[in-house]
């Protein structure tokens, strides 16, 4: 091991280096083909290669540490779906210099047959007798997601810690011990620069207006960290011990007990005095910030609500609903619920314990959720303590979806179901913004529920190669109908670009998103159903088709390659910037053409294509952009933002012009300006805005005569007077 490695260890970890010096004079105890001697960064030119160093608690290399690896995206999905805690196979074992190196093709993806890219990856290191460590490494865009952290230059060095125990005692308001409380670690935090002393000092200096110091990293699924005891119950003295916690880290623990408020506590894995923010003019109570191991904490009494859930059958009393999930509603949570989840018994009864007074105005808002086994509509209800709350829910229809790829093999994607909107501006109440998210019960097998009436099971594109769907929802739900109004043409069921669902009220604090579109460009498959209340469990199937993306070559009008352009697509998450001159263009349909625009801001160039999968490869000639500008004014000459124009020409569908409400680089406030491709003809139809939307309002006449701008030309349409 060379001197450069020694210096890097000393600078980065400030730990003893005596063992490193000794290691320099000995051969590895196991054969190794590793030849590098520096703390590595991600090898960006070798997407399957992962390499790094594991450091022990004293700063020296750690031999014999086991390395696990997982995609951070799949890891997050598993956390949301309560999947197995297994980290998978051991990828490598460190040599006597603490180094590891392995190839993982399964942690990459291929946008083209010739190209392979790496995923953002979680690396976990474990060693018998020590607490585990982890690091997240850089990855490229994958599927329809992007990664902005960590950086390419991040050093891949995983630090193991000595294990310690987090201890505590829980008591009630009369100082009596609380026995049989469940204590669970829900997150492990590494202080900034791995320096708990500095972290604690900053916390002690907190005031009402100062910010809490951030962590270097957080592991939010500690059950996957081997060797850490994440759960315990208090004994007769109210005490608990959680073993194997990384020393000098911070943990978040959740305390639950039927008689006390569910409580989250932040605890240092070290004995120390507890830290509070002192009372102030806004809060006459001191606020707990951090507890030290060995703490004693007083739990506040909890509130219990009870009720019974039955099916809504209109007249009369429906049968009880067994197996429904009940919890406190939380519109910010992925499943619309927070805290412990409860299930109704055979008589439809439930009991939620551990509630605090902060929910109780005018009552506690709970969420009731259905499933394949208990097919009911998920809804929110307000309940009250000290009474039996009677809740009625409507039935839903269970389905089992078999999802395969084009070779008939089981496929895994994000799947959800929605209510398909029949009429514009419909509103419904729900627990989340979609009807249901099914569970994957076996490879390619999903079990969930659909609404009674128009509904859809949607399969999201999860790979760049997934072909988007192109369907007409109207022809399924109302075949043959043609007398659609302007609003109905888009918002009733949807159109060729989207499937529309009603606005969903998930909290009274926020207005619902009316006429919410689900873009077909983002879907790999969809199954429509107009289910009846008497429908038996539905057996559905869907197939994902993949295409190799055609290549795009951007050139200027002299035929020279253009790099650094920005691409705008009809689905915003597919748009890109800083493009190379040649690149693959995934996500096209073989028949429905997508309008795609390219601009190079620094050179003032613009180009476009209307592309299908079957028409590539593409050479896009970018020319000096033209600009259409002007202003919409009232009969008194005042700029107005109430009117605009639907623009036709070489622009995406449903493009509009409208006065800017603030200054922009293109035009000042009160005017509009839009860069367009030269040599194309553009026209506009006046439209009046409603509910912040231009489309699909009926047009009310031409806004301006057709124009065909030349390269670099600025076409000023002047003041366009709108109707009174």
TrEMBL record:
Q: Which domain of life is it from?
A: Bacteria
Which key words tag this protein in UniProt?
Carboxypeptidase, Hydrolase, Protease, Signal
Q: Where is the signal peptide?
A: 1-23
**InterPro entries from the xrefs?**
CarboxyPept-like_regulatory
A GO MF term:
carboxypeptidase activity
Q: What is this protein called?
A: Carboxypeptidase regulatory-like domain-containing protein
Report the source organism: Roseiconus nitratireducens
């Amino acid at each position: 091991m060379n001197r450069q490695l020694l210096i890097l260890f000393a600078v980065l970890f400030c730990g003893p280096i005596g063992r490193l010096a000794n290691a320099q004079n000995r051969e590895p105890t196991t054969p190794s083909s590793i030849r590098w001697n520096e703390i590595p960064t991600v090898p960006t030119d070798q997407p399957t290669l992962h390499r790094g160093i594991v450091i022990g608690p004293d700063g020296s290399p750690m031999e014999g540490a086991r390395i696990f690896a997982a995609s951070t995206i799949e890891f997050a999905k598993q956390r949301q779906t309560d999947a197995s805690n297994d980290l998978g196979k051991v990828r490598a074992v460190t040599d006597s210099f603490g180094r590891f190196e392995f190839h993982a093709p399964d942690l990459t993806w291929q946008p083209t047959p010739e190209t392979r890219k790496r995923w953002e990856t979680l690396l976990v290191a474990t060693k018998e007798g020590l607490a585990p460590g982890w690091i997240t490494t850089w990855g490229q865009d994958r599927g329809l997601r992007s990664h902005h952290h960590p950086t390419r230059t991040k050093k891949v060095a995983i630090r193991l810690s000595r294990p310690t125990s987090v201890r505590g005692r829980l008591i009630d308001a009369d100082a009596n011990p609380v026995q049989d409380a469940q204590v669970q670690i829900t997150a492990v935090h590494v202080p900034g620069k791995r320096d708990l002393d500095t972290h604690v000092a900053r916390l002690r200096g907190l005031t009402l207006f100062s910010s809490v110091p951030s962590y270097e990293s957080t592991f939010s699924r500690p059950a996957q960290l081997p060797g850490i005891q994440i759960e315990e119950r208090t004994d007769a003295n109210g005490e608990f011990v959680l073993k194997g916690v990384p020393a000098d880290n911070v943990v978040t623990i959740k305390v639950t007990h039927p008689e006390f408020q569910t409580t989250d506590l932040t605890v240092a894995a070290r004995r120390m005095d507890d830290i509070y923010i002192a009372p102030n003019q806004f809060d006459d109570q001191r606020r707990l910030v951090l507890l030290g191991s060995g703490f004693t904490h007083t739990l506040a009494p909890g509130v219990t609500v009870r009720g019974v859930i039955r099916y809504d059958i209109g007249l009369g009393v429906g049968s009880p609903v067994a197996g429904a999930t009940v919890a406190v509603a939380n519109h910010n949570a992925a499943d619309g619920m927070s805290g412990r989840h409860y299930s109704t018994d055979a008589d439809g009864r439930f009991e939620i314990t551990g509630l605090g007074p902060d929910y109780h105005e005018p009552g506690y808002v709970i969420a009731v959720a259905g499933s394949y086994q208990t097919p009911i509509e998920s809804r929110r209800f307000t309940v009250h303590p000290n009474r039996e709350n009677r809740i009625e829910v409507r039935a839903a229809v269970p389905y089992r979806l078999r999802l395969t790829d084009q070779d008939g093999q089981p496929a895994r994607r994000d799947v959800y179901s929605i209510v398909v909107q029949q009429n514009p501006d419909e509103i419904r109440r729900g627990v989340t913004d979609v009807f249901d998210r099914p569970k994957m019960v076996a490879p390619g097998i999903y079990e969930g529920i659909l609404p009674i009436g128009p509904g859809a099971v949607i399969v999201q594109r999860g790979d760049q190669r997934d072909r988007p769907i192109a369907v007409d929802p109207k022809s399924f739900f109302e075949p043959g109908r043609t007398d659609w109004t302007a609003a109905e043409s888009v918002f009733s069921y949807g159109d060729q670009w989207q499937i529309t669902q009603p606005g969903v009220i998930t909290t009274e604090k926020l207005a619902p998103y009316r006429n919410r579109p689900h873009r077909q460009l983002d879907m790999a498959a969809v199954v429509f159903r107009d289910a009846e209340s008497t429908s038996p469990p539905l057996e559905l199937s869907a197939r994902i088709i993949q295409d190799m993306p055609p290549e795009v070559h951007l050139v200027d009008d002299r035929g020279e390659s253009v790099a650094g352009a920005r691409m705008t697509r009809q689905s915003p998450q597919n748009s890109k910037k800083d493009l190379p001159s040649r690149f693959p263009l995934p996500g096209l349909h073989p028949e429905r053409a997508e309008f795609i625009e390219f601009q190079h801001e620094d050179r003032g160039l613009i180009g476009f294509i209307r592309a299908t999968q079957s028409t590539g490869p593409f050479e896009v000639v970018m020319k000096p952009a033209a600009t259409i500008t002007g202003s919409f004014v009232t009969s008194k000459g005042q700029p107005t933002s109430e009117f605009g124009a639907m623009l036709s020409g070489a622009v995406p569908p449903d493009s509009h012009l409208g006065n800017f409400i603030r200054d922009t680089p293109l035009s000042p406030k009160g005017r509009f300006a839009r860069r367009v491709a030269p040599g194309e003809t553009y026209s506009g139809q006046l439209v009046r805005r409603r509910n912040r939307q231009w489309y699909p309002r009926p047009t009310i006449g031409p806004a301006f005569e057709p124009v065909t701008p030349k390269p670099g030309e600025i076409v000023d349409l002047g003041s366009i007077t709108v109707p009174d």
